[in-house]
């Protein structure tokens, strides 16, 4: 990305680079985190439990589902199982990011794994591809997003009803970020076709099959399609 | 629910969230992956981003049905154009938010 190309390979600036890259994520997390905190309060979940959940789990969509399930009186095991299914998609992201963290210490990798979310994954992958990116910058993005998330959810639980939902289009922040990151990933026709396939498959999957399996199902099917298209293209040119 | 109940629930959720994030990193990052796997994985970010976005842009999530031309989709078009022009992530987020905010007044 143009705004980061000036950083060459200076190692001292890793924190600043990570902070610069993470602000769109943090910006998007604030309204969502506040909303989660408010919903948790309405479901009679105390603020310290919200803090504990954000620290131990750190997975936005699963936390929303957990609050809804608690409010509906679901059992602990069914909530844990649902969380597992919803977050399986991170298996794919972790595999994809592993390619860029070859040879890094396992202790660091174990700490890094904690912060892999849809958002930090997308931002870090975009930066890894353009170069000038390393594990320190990447974990800075993860951890700043994590800190923002924890603070926002607790603030939402404490301040509760005083904050208007969706002011200034904040509901759209993460969608806009995903759109831009998607665009930056479209390096050639293989990626474009993979993306179109993923859009079509995941919409159909989403409409036909309940739950969140459309994310994993759509991505695996589309990436496989894209892979074979790439093989075909290389053989015939 | 009491403190131990919450702790058990969130520790369980935390564990099943952490494992899928941790296993591939811990076992894949120390070895050279086969070429086909690297190529396949390089397509995963695009595929995941589109899978995450698709229902937001093209469906009504309350009723889980197809909806063409919803505000999220209409706003996405100028937002993408801005991203093409500027290549700025932060700028695109702000423009997207602003347009979505305005669309709330225009389309309601």
TrEMBL record, chain A:
The keyword ATP-binding does not apply. GO terms for biological process: L-valine transmembrane transport. The chain crosses the membrane at residues 20-40, 189-207, 213-229. Keywords: Cell membrane, Membrane, Transmembrane, Transmembrane helix, Transport. Signal peptide: none annotated. It is found in: Cell membrane. It is a multi-pass membrane protein. InterPro entries: Brnchd-chn_aa_trnsp_permease. One of its GO terms (cellular component) is plasma membrane. Belongs to the AzlC family. This is Putative branched-chain amino acid permease (Azaleucine resistance).
TrEMBL record, chain B:
Keywords: Membrane, Transmembrane, Transmembrane helix. It comes from Desulfocapsa sulfexigens (strain DSM 10523 / SB164P1). This is Putative membrane protein. It comes from the Bacteria. InterPro entries: Brnchd-chn_aa_trnsp_AzlD. The keyword Transmembrane applies. The chain crosses the membrane at residues 6-28, 40-58, 88-107.
